[in-house]
Every structure is written in C-alpha cells, then in structure tokens.
Amino acid sequence: MKKKIVAMILVLACVTGIYAPENAWEAVEASTQKGKKTPSIQKVYNAVKKAYGDDYIPSEKVSKKELKERYGISSKWYSAAIAEVPMISANADTLVIVKAKNAASKKKIRSALKKYREELIQDTCQYPMNQLKIQASKVYVKGNYVCFIMLGTISNKQEEQSEDKVIAAYKKQNEKAVKAINKLYK
C-alpha cells in the first residue's frame, strides 16, 4: 500500500512538472522492502546493551561537543547519536552509534571513526591491559548507522594466551554487538 501511494505521488509529480530525481524509484523500492525498516537509535542502543548484560561497562554519555572533539564527528552529519564511555579511564569499553543523515555523511562518519580507532592503536600511552582490546575494536556500518564498538570481557584464562588469541577473543566479543544490530534488520 505504501509503495502504491509513493508511486502515485511520483507520477503526479512528473505529470505536474514537479522535479522527481532519477533515483526516486530506487528510493521507493529501498524504503518499502520487507524487513528493511531502519530501527530507532534507541532500539539499536538497547539491543547492544542487552547483548552484553552485566558485562556492558560504558556508563558515561558523550555530548555533541565531545563527539566532535573526541571522534571528529560534526553534528551536521547525523540525525541522532548515542555514545558512551566508561566512568573509569582505566577501562577502554566504548560504544558509539551514529545515524548518518545521508550517504555522504555516512562516509565522513565512518572515516572519522576509523581515524579515531587508528589513533587509539598508535597511542603508546594506553594502559597495557587495554592495548589488545583496542586492536580488536571495530567500526561497523549497517544501514544509516555507523558504530564504533569496543566492548566485552574475556576470562583470565583467555587473557593469558598469546596476543593473537586475546585479540581474536575480544573481536568475538565485539561480534555480540554486530549480531544484536543485525537482528533488528530481520
């Protein structure tokens, strides 16, 4: 039904001479595909937080100003954002979820978060216990959302393994967030 209404509006726009972009039909298709609705940012955040349960550590909200200063993300690029860091700086757990306004903004946000991630990896002043977790961090894009994920805990036994295995264990922890986000799109 929604598809028919949008199609009728597009036909009327063409008949009356109102401009309709070339990719308007693609937009109709994309917006009406079954199971492709964009979840709210709050749903994305709640799903990620729920996936970690008691192991979700970030608790301090990041302001718009801090998003710009810390991550290089301009408020002009997004329609919504939720970012949290741990209250105690000795912990590295961080979650950033940004809903881009458009494709160009999504690229800029992704680039800014990748740059932030690289800077973290190169920072030699990190707590030694966080270095491998930082290397396992992930910039993830789904729909209009761009996320920086550095979450989860591993056992003491896992922490005593080789660096490669520890990084792999932390990467597996980050996949909890990815799976939680992907579930919202089904």
Molecular structure report:
Helix 1 runs antiparallel to helix 2 and helix 3 (41-52) crosses helix 8 (163-183). By secondary structure, this protein is of the alpha+beta class. A hairpin with an 8-residue loop joins strand 2 (78-85) and strand 3. The protein has helices at 2-15, 24-32, 41-52, 64-71, 103-122, 131-135, 156-159, 163-183; strands at residues 60-61, 78-85, 94-100, 138-142, 145-150. The longest helix is centred in the last third of the chain and has 21 residues, at 163-183. Strands 1-2-3-5-4 form a 5-stranded antiparallel sheet, sandwiched between helices.
Low-pLDDT residue intervals, each spanning 5 or more residues: 1-35
Helix content: 40-55%
- The H-and-E topology, N to C, reads as HHHEHEEHHEEHH
Straight-line N-to-C gap: 20 Å
Largest sheet: 5 strands, antiparallel
Radius of gyration, in Å, reads: 20 Å
Shape: globular
Helical segment count: 8
Average predicted local confidence, pLDDT: 83
Oligomer: single chain
Task: Label the structural class.
Answer: alpha+beta
Number of strands: 5
Strand order of the largest sheet: 1-2-3-5-4
**SS strand fraction:** 15-25%
What is the compact description of this entry?
With 186 residues, this protein is an alpha+beta fold. It has 8 helices and 5 strands.
